[in-house]
Amino acid sequence: MPVFTCHKNHVGYNGEGFVYPAPLTTKLDEQEVAIIVNFPSSEQLSHLGEFGLIRRIAGRIAADDSVVTGIGDDAAVTALTPGMQLLTSTDMLLEDVHFRRVWHDPYRLGRKSLAVSISDIAAMGAIPRWALLSLALPSGLSLDFVDRFMEGFLSMAAEQGVSLTGGDTCSSKTGLVISVTIMGEQFPERIIRRSGACVDDDIWVTGTLGDAALALQVTEKGGDTSLVSRLLDPTPRVSAALELARFGYATALIDVSDGVLADFGHIAELSAVGGQLFVEELPLSQQLRAEAAVITANPYQLALSGGEDYELCFTAPPANREKIRESMKKCGVEVTRIGIVTPPTGVFALNGDGSRFTCLAAGFNHFN
């Protein structure tokens, strides 16, 4: 199929070092998005056909100098910044597994589809650059839905400086299937892996935990919550990750998608260490505390194992504490020290008195 590209901000060299593309500091509102991508919706998806849909998307995307070969060929050709390595990750979102169309509007579904993939690149301390989007569309899906989905997808791409360089479309006999492949780049010495945590490192997390999990519980029951945007429209922590990578503050890094207890467990496994997470130090939003009480949910259970936070969890030597706080403050990102890396005796959540907190779920796992 032909590939398609969109505009991004480029990495440049200023004579002293590389200048990274700065993601927009605020989300684009729908009027701003309409200026960037205006999809008329007079045709039906079935009448438009696969290649008509591709042309519809491609015709509204600006060129990008980093894409050497784009529309019309069988594959895109992209140019890495000299000295950097390529990072690649992929994510799938399946209807009635990851989302439900009855409560996830297409605009925010498009944004989230790209955001969760960008978060994987951020979790390596890298710069998100290019994306591939593949869609399996049910026959009854309206063209309006696809148009709004693409508006959301491209608004997130514009905010984070990502170029859409290709993809695929096909029909689906069941629900909507979304597959995103994301590519990023970074100097090899700045890439942060899960395998670098050391005993006695601090464990940190950005933002707040558990908001999306509570929003999911409420939304699934047909209720309303002020936290719904944390579930439907998460923000990948790219700027915070690039700060950690630039200065070498973190020894290991991961994004929190399955719950911080499970996700730190991945760091512990690959680093051959253990860990203690201090329950009373977990950062909880005021909205979570208030709304959890209404639905009789334990906010700490949600924070530890709820998932879909898309915050960063990382480890760092104690000597870096003030540097980390200052660098995250410059990014406008809250950061909290929530635990300590231990010898490889397991990963546990601890109450304030040192006793073990009983976590009722181990984190999200597709096959459990």
Summed up:
The protein has helices at 30-36, 45-58, 106-122, 143-160, 211-220, 228-232, 238-247, 260-271, 286-294, 299-305, 321-331, and strands at residues 12-13, 18-19, 67-69, 77-78, 85-94, 127-138, 163-172, 177-186, 202-206, 252-256, 274-278, 311-316, 335-342, 347-350. The protein has 368 residues and is an alpha+beta fold. The protein folds into two domains: 12-189, 60s Ribosomal Protein L30, Chain: A (2-Layer Sandwich); 192-350, Phosphoribosyl-aminoimidazole Synthetase, Chain A, domain 2, CATH 3.90.650.10.
CATH topology of the largest domain: 60s Ribosomal Protein L30, Chain: A
CATH class of the largest domain: Alpha Beta
Query: What's the number of extended β-strand segments?
Result: 14
**Strand order of the biggest β-sheet:** 10-12-9-13-11-14
Which CATH architecture of the largest domain? 2-Layer Sandwich
Helix content: 25-40%
Domain count: 2
Give me the strand/helix succession. Answer: EEHHEEEHEHEEEHHHEHEHHEHEE
Oligomer: single chain
Strand content of the residues, in percent? 15-25%
- Helix and strand composition category: alpha+beta
Provide the CATH superfamily of the largest domain. Answer: PurM-like, N-terminal domain
Largest beta-sheet characterization: 6 strands, mixed
Low-confidence runs of at least 5 consecutive residues: 1-42
| Number of helical segments with 4 or more residues | 11
What coarse outline follows from CA principal-axis ratios?
A: globular
* Radius of gyration over C-alpha positions, nearest whole angstrom: 21 Å
Arithmetic mean pLDDT: 86
